[in-house]
From TrEMBL:
Membrane topology: Multi-pass membrane protein
Domain of life according to the entry: Bacteria
Name recorded for this polypeptide: Manganese/zinc/iron transport system permease protein
Lineage: Bacteria, Bacillati, Bacillota, Bacilli, Bacillales
Keyword DNA-binding set for record: no
One of the GO biological process terms: response to zinc ion
Family to which the UniProt record says this protein belongs: Belongs to the ABC-3 integral membrane protein family.
Record bears the keyword NADP: no
InterPro entries: ABC_BtuC-like, ABC_TroCD
Organism, as annotated: Evansella caseinilytica
Length: 290
């Protein structure tokens, strides 16, 4: 596959996996949790490096995933003690991210682990770090990891589709039916953490947040059916990846930033032209009744 092909495939995998997770985040009113986890995983990455003195390996993924789960646990713990969820997210997010930044400044030294790279990422470097897999051949490491994450996310969503649907719309009903709501919550937070971490190094926190929230929010405007919403959200993420790449090439700018910008354009089109919630449709119905 060509250099451009690997970049587009990697970005499409980010868009698809984040699109699936984002729908459940939107329905559970936890959109800002994506922003929190995409930043607090920096602390896990830094601690994993300080423990191993290596920037490569599964320990980085494990450290970041643990930081993401710790974020979810602390937010839930503060919320259970009467603090509003948005305030809980704000406290945990800023504190853990600040600790990560301080550790980078004081303990990491000259190693290439910086805040700008963590926030923006650089998807253009993806094709240069490769591995060889049996029956598949040589592929970029990030592409392989993201493909595996997409399979895991899709599999778990399909396996527990009924449980996700009930716990997202009516947790009280789910608990009365014997569904382990708390366990499902932390399983979902694990998926959010792992998906965020998998995309983190490739595309940075900004694109991860954009892909997790904006395509799902756009899909929410087009349909009230969960299955359709999942398909639309992933499709919007993939579409944004492709359009964003060619826009970045055209105007010679950041690829990840351009992809994140394109998700906003997709949302703008949705809020204007979606059948039920679109501004144009509402205006036409208003004019028709006059």
């Amino acid at each position: 596959m060509s250099y451009t092909g690997w970049i587009l495939l990697t970005a499409a995998l980010v868009g698809a996996s984040c699109g699936l997770i984002g729908v459940l985040l939107i329905l559970r009113r936890m959109a800002m949790m994506a922003d929190a986890i995409s930043h607090t995983v920096l602390l896990g990455i830094v601690i994993a490096y300080l423990m191993t003195k290596s920037l490569h390996g599964i320990h980085m993924l494990i450290g970041a995933a643990i930081a993401g789960l710790l974020t979810a646990f602390l937010v839930q713990w503060l919320h259970s003690r009467g603090i509003q969820q948005d305030a809980s997210i704000g406290v945990v997010f800023t504190t853990m991210f600040a600790i990560g930044v301080i550790l980078i400044s004081t303990s990491v030294g000259n190693v290439h682990l910086d805040v700008q790279h963590a926030l923006m990422g650089e998807i253009a470097f993806i094709p240069w770090k490769v591995t060889t897999l049996p029956l598949i051949g040589t592929i970029p490491v990030a592409t392989g990891i993201l493909a595996l994450i997409l399979i895991i996310v899709l599999g778990i969503i399909l396996l527990f589709y009924k449980e996700w649907k009930i716990t997202s719309f009516d947790p009280a009903l789910a608990a009365s039916l014997g569904i382990p709501v708390v366990a499902m919550h932390y399983l979902f937070m694990t998926l959010v953490s792992v998906t965020t971490v998998a995309a983190f190094d490739a595309v940075g926190a900004i694109m991860v947040v954009a892909m997790l929230i904006t395509p799902a929010a756009a899909a929410y405007l087009w349909t009230d059916k969960l299955s359709v919403m999942l398909v639309l959200s992933s499709s919007f993420g993939i579409l944004s990846a492709f359009i964003g790449y060619y826009l970045a090439v055209w105007i010679d700018t950041s690829i990840s930033g351009s992809m994140a910008f394109t998700t906003g354009i997709v949302f703008l089109v949705s809020i204007l032209f979606s059948p039920s919630h679109g501004m144009v449709g509402k205006w036409r119905r208003t004019v028709g009744t006059v």
